[in-house]
Structure to design on (692 residues):
DNA sequence: TTGAAAGCGCTAACAC
DNA sequence: GTGTTAGCGCTTTCAA
């Protein structure tokens, strides 16, 4: 490996002090009244010798690493990978790198990841957490660690957070299904039980059904364990089908469940929507051209990412955040496609 | 922020030297003949005081950061996000963190990202590069920077690399299309022109057509610019359709193009496969339940990730790599579904 | 079996 | 306007 040129090399070859060089490359020269001429000299030498500051050494010295951590349950889920892409983009524009971590819904792993990231001195954290409650993050908050919770949130949390209106979105889905005349409706979510988004979606959905005096029977409140989700969806659908107790409509609580549901309904030759209608929470590109196309509640991925990064940056920079912006809830829209429209032939 | 306990705190509170503590926490105590008793004492104190070594300081001192960089064109593309997930998993098991970077097919950005990552002293790099040729990476190789090129490769490269048999996979697709009786065939790729995977796929495809004396006319060799891909696919399809010169079959060169092609063929009410058949390179989950289901060449994502990480780890650790394993080409399979089967009603 | 001390490359008080 | 110096927290010779 070619010998790395360091700050002191520049200083030595110019016969000036390291301080001077440091001030120039950090754009603090003017503030310290370094002459334009000297600055120019330094800049030329930096280019000439192709000096690349050791970011690690700088981070060690200043405590600022220009790195943030992004923690989600699964980076290969389209919802999170799109968020990762946007956050990475905002981060890059501000000179930040992003470290990704997939928790697989494993709380111990998530804690271990946060611990590691803190020991790596990342400047901040953006987290879609798999934890049970706010306590861990309230500690983080009290410790002054800049972070923002996205997607999933907790009652009583002190942390900055940006989420979507899961309750309202689910109500939209329910109202739509009801308006199409569906009454026998099932929901499919995931375990662990405590995931806020899932519960808010079920809650919002149920609340609309309640108005019509409709209750979802227990066997139609399906939960697929995160690490065995495909098998679970498949088997639940199979057994309902064989028992002859398929619902008229299904509300699936994330994009993955929606896909899986469509897939296995297809394998069972159950026609959607004529036999069973389908609406999902979280829209993805391809719901537009599946068979049938799938109705889904669309989440504002770009906005989530933007607000989350902004909120984090403000904490890192110590910019005060107006109280009203500390906890952000973004609206969602329902996109109606074929899968949930009654009496349509596909 | 609560005062971080540091190594010297442990040493002081035990009345021993920092050296001792350092040796113990790095499992080098036995090799240095530190008494079991002392080791035990140190370990207890570490737990008691909840000492978390400052990874940054350690990295600064040793030059080992236990971090790798993953550079791809777009982390939200399912192909790359699945790879990211697997690599992150292997990395985590070995104590490594991974920093992601999306280049957006921008060469300057890619170079800037690599430069930044090197200044951050990452231990190694896994890259699906957007560059034109091997020169940059040969320099990296000569500089002794551990790295492995994945997906896209270059003639004359010295770097370790793992790719798939793009040529062979495309031949599979071509043979299949020919066997179904299709003769008027178009391909849709992306620009920039130099992307190896795209060219190998076109090459393999063309080579099979050549055997039948079939040449793809220029207007059917479509290239969509990366940053305007959706619009380009849409307009190309539109104009072919309006000019009445749609082909019998289309071979799309990545999963995104396949999806887009299916989408806009649908919008034009062009029936797939009865009017135009479709085969794509790179399979994704949902091709199984689109309308129609889509035939595609499946890439071994997990294996790519595994081999890439192994290759990187060996370089980092200085483990010699057998010559035959330095450059890996993995086989691919064609999955035939409805979109490319002739005379099938959908 | 253990400790002292140097130093990784950089920044920031504080001098001059 | 510019330089001196100390030190961030850790690992690692080298000495005892």
């Amino acid at each position: 490996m070619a010998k790395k040129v360091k700050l002191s090399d520049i200083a030595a070859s110019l016969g000036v002090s390291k301080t001077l060089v440091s001030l120039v490359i950090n754009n603090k020269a003017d503030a310290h009244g370094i002459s334009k001429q000297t600055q120019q000299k330094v800049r030329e030498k930096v280019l000439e010798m192709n000096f690349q500051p050791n970011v690690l050494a700088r981070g060690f010295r200043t405590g600022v690493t220009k790195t943030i951590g992004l923690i989600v349950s699964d980076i290969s889920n389209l919802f999170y990978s799109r968020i990762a892409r946007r956050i990475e983009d905002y981060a890059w524009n501000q000179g930040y790198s992003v470290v990704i971590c997939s928790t697989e819904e494993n709380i111990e792993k998530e804690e271990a990841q946060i611990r590691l990231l803190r020991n790596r001195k990342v400047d901040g954290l953006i987290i879609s957490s798999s934890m049970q409650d706010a306590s861990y993050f309230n500690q983080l908050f009290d410790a002054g660690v800049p972070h923002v919770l996205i997607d999933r949130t907790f009652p009583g949390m002190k942390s900055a957070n940006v989420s979507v209106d899961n309750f309202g979105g689910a109500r939209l889905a329910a109202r739509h299904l009801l308006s199409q005349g569906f009454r026998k409706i099932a929901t499919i979510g995931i375990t662990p039980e405590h995931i806020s988004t899932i519960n808010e979606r079920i809650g919002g959905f149920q609340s609309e059904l309640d108005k019509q005096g409709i209750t979802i029977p227990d066997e139609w409140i399906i939960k697929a364990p995160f690490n065995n989700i495909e098998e679970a969806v498949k088997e639940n659908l199979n057994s309902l089908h064989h028992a002859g107790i398929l619902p008229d409509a299904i509300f699936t609580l994330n994009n993955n469940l929606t896909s899986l549901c469509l897939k296995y309904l297809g394998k069972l030759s159950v026609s959607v929507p004529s036999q069973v209608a389908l609406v999902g929470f979280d829209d993805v590109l391809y719901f537009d051209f599946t068979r049938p196309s799938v109705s889904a509640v669309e989440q504002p991925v770009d906005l989530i990412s933007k607000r989350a990064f902004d909120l984090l940056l403000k904490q890192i920079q110590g910019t005060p955040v107006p109280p009203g912006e500390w906890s952000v809830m973004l609206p969602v829209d329902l996109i109606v496609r074929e899968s949930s429209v009654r009496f349509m032939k596909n």
